[in-house]
Amino acid sequence: MINDKYYYRHWVIMGIITAVVILYVCRLFYLQIIEDKYRRQADSNALVHRTKYAPRGLIYDRHGQLLVFNQPAYDIVVTINEMSKTGGCARFCRDINIDWEYYVDRMSEIKNVNTNRGYSRYTPQIFMTQLRMEDIAQLQEVIHSNHPGFAIQHRTLRDYTYPNAAQVLGSIGEVSQNDIEKDDYYARGDYAGRDGLEYTYEKDLRGEKGEEILLRNSRGRIVGNYAEGKYDSEPKAGTDITLTLDIQLQILAENMLQGKIGSIVAIEPATGEILALASSPTWDPALLVGRQRSKNYNILSNDPTKPLMNRALQAQYSPGSTFKTVQACVALQLEAITPNTTYPCSGPGSAPIKCTHHHGSPVSLLNAIEQSCNPYFWLAYKNTLEKKGYGKNNKDFKAQYNRWRDCVMSFGLGHKFDDSDLYQQSRGSIPSAELYDKWYGATGWKAITIRSNSIGQGEVQITPLQIANAAATIANAGYYITPHLNKADSMLTRRHDTKVDKNYFRYVQEGMWRVFEYGTGRHHKIPGINMCGKTGTVDNNHGRPHSLFIGFAPKENPKIAVAVVVENAGYGATWAAPMASLIMEQYLTDTIARQDLKQRMVTSVTNPNVKKYQ
Amino acid sequence: MYERRVKYAIDWFTVIIYLILVICGWISIYGASHTFEQTELFNFDYRSSKQLVWIAGAMIIGVITMLIDYRFYEQISYLFYGLMIIALLATPLLAHDIKGSMSWIVIGPVSIQPAEIAKVATALAIARFMNSYGYRVNSLRDLIIPAIMLLVPMFIIMVPQKETGSALVFASLILMFYREGMTPVILLLGVAAVIFFVITIAFAEATLPLGTGTWGITACMIMLMIICFIYVYHWLKLPRFAFILAGINTAIAAIALTVNIWLNVNMQYVSIAIVLFDAIYTALLGIAHNKRDTIWIAVFAIAAIIYCLSASILISKLKPHQRNRIMVTLGVIEDRAGQGYNVNQAKIAIGSGGLWGKGLGSGTQTKLKYVPEQDTDFIFCTVGEEHGFVGTTFVLLLYLTLLIKLIIMSERQKDNFSRIYGYCVTCILFFHLAVNVGMVIGLVPVIGIPLPFFSYGGSSLWAFTLLLFIFLRLDAARLDRL
User: Does residue A21 lie in a domain region?
Assistant: First the structure.
């Protein structure tokens, strides 16, 4: 062959071809095996993940009355890429009734990748949430034809049967960036409980979102479900919750607190179930739903009477004379007094603490409770702390003080109920020996220094919930069940025994019974029911004394324990005692016979600054 | 006698590879063209069903090709070539504008692209010319005539028909010329041309750290300096002069950089000046030492300067879409929405296939039309997405096997005509494979040419079948010759 000397060149050509194929295989190995971004881009190209929102769990009261349910709501979402380039924004603003500045702000928020991390031109972004039917009525019919890129997404909002229990129930709102980072269940535009029960039971109430994976073609049109819906999931509705609240009792409590600042807590002693948890001022929970939420929230948070604060759990007061019931138990337990101990009382001339009531002298324990005798409890307190003398460096005195403090705290006072489902409790305070050491020096304080504690003034601070729980503890003669709101939650029915022997309680119960029979509560007894209670009138720096009352009934088989606090209203017997009595009447007899009294409580105003948010 | 011989000499191995490729191609078209809502197998609204008709036609063409006497192809080649040139010239007059291309003649439901058949005719005609008595590939006359035979259809397809891709296919025959004895210098010059072009364009925007000018041309000039140095050092064997050359180069650069402190110096032009000096220096050295071939190095250097300068001008003269394709492939511009969109979507489709792919008919990118032309020029995306790395590698290895087999078959031919034609077939198929797959995986600019036996379309399938089976027929007759 003439070309034979070039025969070797076929190897060169084979080499070139093989080299190109090997190069391509390597490139494909990189594209298909090593590099991961193409798979993700392919999915974001073609797959649209559409959330199917789960209906939130409903909330019932203890008798099965529906309190919180869902109403249809609408979100407006916008896909920037599909928006009209030629405008129509003004028309859109008019249809949805927003101003131009809001529109521009919202759009730049959506496009800001720093705050809206999941931003993409091609996926729907939340423009506005929680709209009601009437908000979108104008828009709904024209959204597809007039406003390309915008769409309406169906959601649910909360609705309420009664305009009550706002602080207890709490509210839901759009999740923050922080929430999304903490819990990957959430995505932008989701709602979650912000406070109250909605917050505590968020994981039960929210249920589980479902997801639909749709296929989108290159023109952005949805052409069907991916893999015939094999990977889709149905939403799971949230768990319904039955509360321990009795809504009628709650309504009565809130009505009576109208025009006043204060709170009412009612507990079923045997179970720790909270029957009513009212705080005033309050608002209609429906005000914090939907588009008006942030506006109304601002109004509430700027109100100087602090309606957003749930006073029943968060406000801290000196318990005043109501604390004498606990003091009596502890003094008996620590053997400072016996049920027969008597102390002299010089009435207003007593020192170092004068007595504000008029009664005979000497006075026994039962009389002291009945008549709220200050000198008796001072002497009992002094004897409790100094029974063993002071010892070296006041060691014995402080040991005794700590014993007293432990006993008091075993009533649930001065600490949070950590195993409870209550949202944001305050701690209250039963001061520690260390605190006084810091204030007065290690040997600088004695019983006389802290004498105010003996009558519940001074440094002792409690929340209405805590003192109501103390009443329930006395009613139970020595123990309490953690106060809680979820009726079904067996976790929360834990029993806490006090450090006071149960035999001592009957003397205190007897004393409290006498308060209703002969003492400061005698005008507010419900005929035919043996009631126990104790008033408190707490001096403070903000004007008239706080009016306090704790009590329970019936004495022989307590069904309800109540604590009432009305700030700057006057004597405990004037405001708190009748309110507590009415609460007990309502709960025990299911009706109110004393309509005049009720009417007076509901209509009277002790603080003209309290607004009604309906 | 004749009948039996044909039957026994048919290279069944090649036929089977061909059939596997056609079947794989059809499966891919089926995967690409069926949307998710429409899943009927035989509906002639679908391209996969139409392709069955084209495949049947291709089989008939294959059989007929095998039945015709082998001598017929050599005899008919010039006539065939002449007719095809006329057909090519007539096409733009009859053609409908399809996406800017004037290469399709539409007859009723069928579109025909004569450019595809022109490849067969040109290959046959060149093979016949180069087989003629007394032909010497390294004589200028004998190289220019086949070159013209090549350039005429290439020009007609590129200019009046505006079908650059199909035109470039003819350039691939340079490998065949190389096999037939063409000096490798031309091949190397071709490679150099590509390298200089890529560097000039790709770094046209990268400014130099000192002085003014860009890296593109400067980098090419530095390469030329190194070539001159190596030439003087190694081929002229004058190490002393090589180092003097390097020293002078460094000195000029140093002076320029010093001047740059006060005046702005365009270092790009300084580098060109240095190369001009090097070219003259090397040429004079060669003459002084009686090595006159050295003059070619100087010519090469000067030609390279002109080439690089004109490359940047040339690129600005290209049509915007052609320029964009080149720029996108070289990574000079990132253009996800325009020209880059196709390549990016193609890469997404292939890249999302993973090792095993998403399964036949489950490719979301191809089915939802993210990938353009996903059953014709971008058919390889469907393979990549639905059958993964395993599928793409399998297909590439099939092609590699076919091409190697075609080279082996070409080498066993007893006459030049068959061998040359065999190499033409190899070159054309290789070019199609390299450019089509390279384009889809983002290594080659987007040039719209089909993947042989795979892409949807009657013209290309029939033309490739004819191309291959003529060679199979020639091969089958090898025992009949001499």
Answer: yes
Closest residue to B351, CB basis, from A7, A32, A218: A32
- Residue type at position B280: I
Residues A327, A196 share a domain: no
- State how many domains chain A has: 3
CB-CB under 8 Å, B384 with A37? no
C-beta of residue B465 within 8 angstroms of C-beta of residue B447: no
Q: Which residues fall within 8 angstroms of residue A99, CB to CB, at 6 or more apart?
A: A93
Chain A residues lying within 8 Å of B384, measured CB to CB:
28, 31-32
Which of B205, B200, B202 is closest to B224 using CA atoms?
B200
What region, left, alpha or beta, does residue B70 occupy, with left being phi > 0 and alpha being psi -120 to 50 degrees? alpha
Return all residues near B134 (Cβ < 8 A) that are at least 6 apart.
none
Does the residue A609 lie in any domain? no
Q: Which of A234, A188, A224 is nearest to A52 (CA)?
A: A234
Tens of pLDDT along chain B (482 residues)? 455 554 457 889 999 999 999 999 998 888 877 655 555 555 666 777 888 889 999 999 999 999 898 889 999 999 999 999 999 988 888 877 766 677 777 776 677 888 889 999 999 999 999 988 778 777 778 888 888 999 999 998 888 887 888 888 998 998 998 888 888 888 888 888 888 888 887 777 777 777 777 888 888 899 999 988 988 888 888 889 999 999 999 999 999 988 888 888 888 889 999 999 999 999 888 888 888 788 888 888 888 888 888 887 877 777 777 777 777 666 666 555 555 677 778 888 888 888 888 877 777 777 666 777 777 888 898 899 889 999 999 999 999 999 999 999 999 888 889 999 999 999 999 999 999 999 888 888 778 889 999 998 888 999 999 999 999 999 988 776 65
| Helix (H) or strand (E) segment spanning residue B278 | helix B267-288
Edge to edge, the sheet with strand B110-112 lists B96-98, B101-107, B110-112
> Phi, psi at residue A64, to the nearest 5°?
80, 15
Whether B26 and B127 map to the same domain: the answer is: yes
Residue B119 in any domain: the answer is: yes
- Report how far Cα A383 is from the mean position of its chain's Cα atoms: 40
Contact A504, A329 (CB under 8 A): yes
**B101 φ/ψ angles, rounded to the nearest 5 degrees:** -105, 140
Q: Which of A20, A23, A45 sits opposite B365 (nearest CB)?
A: A45
Determine which of A38, A213, A225, A230 to mutate to test the interface with B (most B C-beta atoms within 10 Å). A38
For residues B318 and B354, state if they share a domain.
no
Shared domain for A235 and A328, answered yes or no, is: no
Q: What is the pLDDT of residues A97-107, one digit of tens each?
A: 788 888 888 88
Backbone angles phi, psi at A551, to 5 degrees: -175, 170
CA distances from B410 to B11, B125, B468, B471, B475 (A): 12, 17, 12, 9, 8
Answer for the pair A291, A265: CB distance below 8 angstroms, yes or no.
no
B454: which 2 tokens?
């795979």
What are the pLDDT digits (tens) for A434-450? Answer: 999 999 988 889 889 99
Residues of B in contact with A16 (CB under 8 A): 175
Using an 8 Å Cβ cutoff, are A232 and A211 in contact?
yes
Q: What are phi and psi of A52, to 5 degrees?
A: -105, 110
Among candidate residues A519, A41, A564, A1, the one with its CA nearest the CA of residue A267: A564
A468 and A537 share a domain?
Answer: yes
